[in-house]
Amino acid sequence: MSTAAVPEKAPDDSSKLKTFLSILRKFVGVADIASVRFSLPAQLLEPRPNLEYWNYLDRPETFASIGKSDDELGRMLEVLRFWFTKDLKYIKGKPCKPYNSTLGEFFRCSWDVNDNIPEEQNLPGISSNGSSSVQDGDDKVKVCYLTEQTSHHPPVSAFYIDCPERGVTARGFDQISAKFTGTSIRVSPGQHNLGIFVNIEKRDNEEYQLTHPDAHLGGILRGALAITVADTCYITCPKTGMKAILQYMEEGWIGRSQNKLEGVIFRYNKDKDTVTRIKDVPESDVIARITGSWHGKIYFTPAGTKEPSLLIDITPLFPVPKNIPPAEEQLSNESLKFWGDVTNAIVDKQFGQATKLKQDIEERQRERAAERKEKGTEWNPRFFTGAVTPLGKPELTEEGQKVLQGIRSGEYTLTESTVKGA
């Protein structure tokens, strides 16, 4: 057996964190380490592409169930239920660092789900048997997902989610800003990340904007990484005139983390929206209140009532596996194939080889960027109309629309792009 084929000793979590921390210390005081795009050695990475890892569909059935309620409050609560389940990976597993996405890299997948929610979690406007005016039976529905890295500086990706049977779509730009404080990493939405925009076609195209709160990656010094949130986020629907404020509560210094949150759903003035704090919402405008733990059970209490009702129980839920295209039908810049050799090397514990392959990819990116600059060539995304436009709400190109149709039908055949960023 050759020396190159001998697996290297896998670093334990303690040595990983020490190495990670030594690298991070170089960035104390840097305004945004996410924009620096520093390269980590392969042994510190999760062997997964960022575009495959980062999506908001850990429980796609909650997305598919949006819009079923005939009641405006019911639909806002459906959106909230999707919100609380979209990132289970950070609740059920350890935070990790996947590969940085490359320009032109893309990922597509789907889920086949039953969008029936347990009876004890029925919402206003849904009968006890789960029916509503847009309920189409108990057959499985398909949720489709397409994302593409549309910008490298700053690093931005666009995404589009579609549940055609329910007429529900979502889109947005993903971009984060990160700062190392010396004890934790504060992660915030970047300037092009205005949140998730959910549209319900069968409800007169109601649109909901869901903004992201700041989060902290803590536990670096003690070797137990964990995500904490102590910030406020908002969900607004101009068509119904409803707004939700969610306040994630800051944890105390002593005692076990409770991950508590509270919130309020209320009528707001869409032309003069100035209310940003729960305590500033007039009692006469309150429609419902939200309480609970974003790691456990979350309840809603309609105005004028005292008995809370269960909105969602996170405790038994785990991320749902994706349906992905067959390997032979994936393109060379499709995430799983693009990073396949690096992933295989990490899985085989060939960390030196994995790091070299990763560095080769990064060098090719720099060379192609230099070539475009020298030729004055502008790079354009393949599946979305702009790198960071329209502001907050990316639109699909004609080819992007065809890709989504292919995901729906299971037809994954695509031709290699003539303009490759990756």
TrEMBL record:
Annotated GO MF terms: sterol binding
SUPFAM superfamilies in alphabetical order: Oxysterol-binding protein-like (SSF144000)
Basic and acidic residues: bias regions: 365-377
Gene Ontology CC annotations of this record: cytosol; membrane
Gene3D superfamilies: 2.40.160.120, 3.30.70.3490
Chain segments carrying region Disordered: 365-391
Family recorded in the similarity comment: Belongs to the OSBP family.
Protein name: Oxysterol-binding protein-like protein 1
